[in-house]
Amino acid sequence: MFNNIYDSHCHSNNSHDGHNSVEQMCITAIEKGISGFALTDHCEVDLYKDEYINRVDNSFRDITLAKEKYKDILTLSAGIELGQPNYNIELSKEIINKHNYDFVIASTHGIGDSGDLCNVNYSNMSIREVNDLLDRYFKYYLEMVTICDFDTAAHLTYPLRYIEGVYNVKIDLAKYMDIIDEIFKTVINRGKALELNTSGLRQNIKKPFPTIELMKRYLDFGGELITIGSDSHRINDIAADFPVSLEFLDYIGFKYYSFYRERKANMIKIRL
Ligand SMILES: [Zn+2]
Ligand SMILES: [Zn+2]
C-alpha cells in the first residue's frame, strides 16, 4: 500500500504543448484521489523574451488562484520548468525571482540555443555523431546542475525518448557514466533532488527517465532527494504510472520521495 501521491511535474495549457487548464487539472487530480501536484509550465530560457514571458505570468496567476480555491482538498505547488537555465544565468535568476515559486525544475531540452533535441532527425546521423551529441548533452547537463539555481534536475536521459524510442537507435550509456556520476555527485553535494520522470513508461521507450538502474546508482552515491513527475501535458496523464514507479523505488531502497513547497523538500514516505 502506498502513501499519498504527489506529482511534481505537470503542464497546463499555459505551456505551448499543454492541453488543459489548471482548473481542469485540479478537478482531475481530485477525482483521481491525488494528494497534490506541482504546476511546472515550460520556460525555455533561450527563447524567453520571444515566447514565454506571458505564458509564465499566466501560469503563475492560474496556480495561485487554484491554490487558494482548492486549499482544503489539494496541495498545490507553484513551479516552473526552466529549459537551459545555464544558457543565461542572470536571466534565469530574474525569471525565478519574478514570482514567488514553490519549486524550480531544471531541464536540458537543447544544448544552448540548439533547439529542442526532440526535433533532430537521428536517422540522418551516424552512431558516432549521435554519441558526440549525447556527450555534449551530458556535459551541458553537468554544467546546468553545477551553476544554476533549481530544486530538481529533470529527465536526465531525455534525448533517449527520441533516439531510442522514436528512431530505434540503441545507446550504450556506459560511455557517459563518468559524466553521469559527476552529475549525481554535484546534485547530491548541492542538496538538490533528482527527478524520476515517468513519461517514458507510457511512450515507445517503455522506461522512465532516468532508468531505475541509474536511480539505484544515484542512491548508492548517497542521493536521497528525489521527485517523481509524470510530465503530463494532458489531464489523463496526471500521476501516470506512479504505483509501479513507487514499487520500483521501494524495491531498490528509497524510503521517501520529495514534494517541494516554498522551495523546501517535504518528505513523503513511499510505503505506509
Ligand atoms: Zn522537459
Ligand atoms: Zn515537462
Automatic annotation (TrEMBL):
Q: Domain of life here? A: Bacteria
Which Enzyme Commission number(s) are listed?
3.1.3.15
Q: Record's Pfam families?
A: PHP
Pathway assignment reads: Amino-acid biosynthesis; L-histidine biosynthesis; L-histidine from 5-phospho-alpha-D-ribose 1-diphosphate: step 8/9
Q: Which SUPFAM superfamilies match?
A: PHP domain-like
Is Hydrolase found in the keyword set?
Answer: yes
Under which name does UniProt file this protein?
Answer: Histidinol-phosphatase
Ranked from the top, the taxonomy reads:
Bacteria, Bacillati, Bacillota, Clostridia, Eubacteriales
